[in-house]
Amino acid sequence: MSNIKSQLSCKFLPIDEVSVKLLRDMYRVFSRYYANTDLDTFVHDMSKKSGIFLLREKMTGRIVGFSTWTEMPLAYGKRKAIGVFSGDTILESDYWGNKALQQAFAMRMLKLKISRPGTRVFWLLISKGYKTYLLLANNFLRHYPNYASRNQRLVRVVDQYCEKLFPDYYDRDNRVLDFGDDSQHLKDDVADITASMRDANAKIRFFDDANPGWRRGTELPCVGEVCTRTLLGFFHKQMTSRRSQAAH
């Protein structure tokens, strides 16, 4: 089991190819890590997506995680732009650290960017926990909110998609999404933030301060610009990591 984290496949499926059985299998994984969930709400939320990334064990075919993909038009200044909204993302804890989803997501982003020359492309996400925020902060050169207070112009993109998708829940003053006390949230034993983690990592500390209600389900809306440098940087990290693993 030493190489368990390399034993996953990731495939994108348009939402109309997702069967009822797949949805039930996805929900089984989801409900293990999130509180205040029910199957009807889960299925309803999935019906609004454009597609899903499905993570399976290569040996057994068992579903161990997924993420979602939804495209939406945006405006950036006087220019048209496109946003890719990621909703819930979950991966069983045995596979935390696996890069299959990130690689598949980056490849789809690259294809979208190439197919829309001259169009700004943004990754839109809402983060219940620090791990999702770190995916943004560690991989996107231009992102908001930013622990170093950069890229303030991107706040307009955040306001735009939150007011389109979540007009009743967006707290514009604090720039968080508050879905109420009965909203879905990470279970207490999943991705907690300790005092030592806050002290050791400025980005984790920033997330905790920017979204102090994350334990009860408030979400931090975020955006990252998809540019050539970001994509090349990501793929360079992946190749460097593979070489290092092969060497050892």
Helix and strand topology:
Elements: E1 8-14, H1 20-33, E2 34-35, H2 39-46, E3 51-57, E4 63-76, E5 79-86, E6 90-91, H3 100-115, E7 120-127, H4 130-139, E8 143-144, H5 155-165, E9 170-171, E10 176-177, E11 185-186, H6 195-200, H7 202-210, E12 220-226, H8 228-247
Parallel strand pairs: 5-7
Antiparallel strand pairs: 1-3, 2-11, 3-4, 4-5, 4-6, 7-12, 8-12, 9-10
Helix pairs in contact: 3-8, 4-7
List keywords for this structure.
248 residues, alpha+beta, 8 helices
Structural account:
Helix content is 38%, strand content 25%. With 248 residues, the chain is α+β, with helices and mostly antiparallel strands. It has one domain. α3 (100-115) packs antiparallel against α8 and α4 crosses α7. The mean pLDDT is 87.
Quick summary of this structure?
With 248 residues, the chain is of the alpha+beta class. It has helices spanning 20-33, 39-46, 100-115, 130-139, 155-165, 195-200, 202-210, 228-247; strands at residues 8-14, 34-35, 51-57, 63-76, 79-86, 90-91, 120-127, 143-144, 170-171, 176-177, 185-186, 220-226. The chain contains eight helices and twelve strands.
